[in-house]
Amino acid sequence: MIFQLDDKLWFPDPRLGEEDGLFAVGGDLSPERLILAYHYGIFPWFSFRNHDEPLWYCPMKRFVIFPSEIHVSHSMKTLMNKGEYTCTFNKAFHDVIIGCGIANNRFLQDGAWLGEDIIKAYGKLHELNIAASVEVWEGKRLVGGLYGVVINDCFIGESMFSLVPNASKLALIHLARFMQEKGKGIIDCQFETPHLKSMGGRFIDYDDYLRFLHEK
């Protein structure tokens, strides 16, 4: 079942949605609605060229990485030991989200979702210290990174990019190690990819996901 949202700040039970996680359409991308959405594992995902309203997803099987379970391959350890790249937090959020949108000509592809409205919406979340980024630098050049939303002790990843091999992996490892040091919860990858599975990602049920999301 797919619900039509209105101007009121609400979401239906995502358990009633489609198998792929789609359960609602409409509403807006205001900070208030996005914050409410992420507190329940809900996120917008839609082709900005093909849809006038946001589509809202909430998969019942969540692909996550527990920071303590991050897999660092031998080749990645070798790369990290070379010291060619440095990682930072929240030094270039806007540049990271733009990089995620245009890397490998993503912006021109069918189904591109990182349009102007999304960029503005997450920029506002960043101003509220709710959206965060990890940057990978080669000297003063930004060569990769990722961004997402922070809810309590969990990081909900939205997108990542690399201009050099393995830059996004470096960003993810840096994030996981930081969270592990702080005793933080989980990294929500939203959907499974071979890239994320190779780094330790696994599925958990939605109800278990919510418990992690709301722990403090």
Structure description:
By secondary structure, the protein is of the alpha+beta class. The protein is 31% helix and 27% strand. Strand 9, helix 5 and strand 10 form a beta-alpha-beta unit. It is globular.
Largest beta-sheet details: 7 strands, mixed
Low-pLDDT parts are none
Report the C-alpha radius of gyration, rounded. Answer: 17 Å
- Average pLDDT works out at 93
Run of helices and strands? EEHEEEHEHHEEEHEHEH
Distance separating the two termini = 32 Å
Please estimate the helix content.
25-40%
Oligomer: single chain
Described by the principal axes of the CA atoms, the overall outline is globular
Total of helices = 7
Beta fraction of the residues? 25-35%
Keywords:
four-stranded mixed beta sheet, alpha+beta, single chain, seven-stranded mixed beta sheet, 216 residues
Structural topology:
Blueprint: E1 3-5, E2 22-26, H1 31-38, E3 43-44, E4 55-57, E5 61-65, H2 74-82, E6 86-89, H3 93-102, H4 116-127, E7 131-138, E8 141-151, E9 154-162, H5 167-182, E10 187-190, H6 194-197, E11 202-205, H7 206-214
Parallel strand pairs: 1-2, 9-10
Antiparallel strand pairs: 2-4, 3-4, 5-10, 5-11, 6-7, 7-8, 8-9
Summarize the structure.
About 30% of the residues lie in helices and about 25% in strands. The chain has about 220 residues and is an alpha+beta fold.
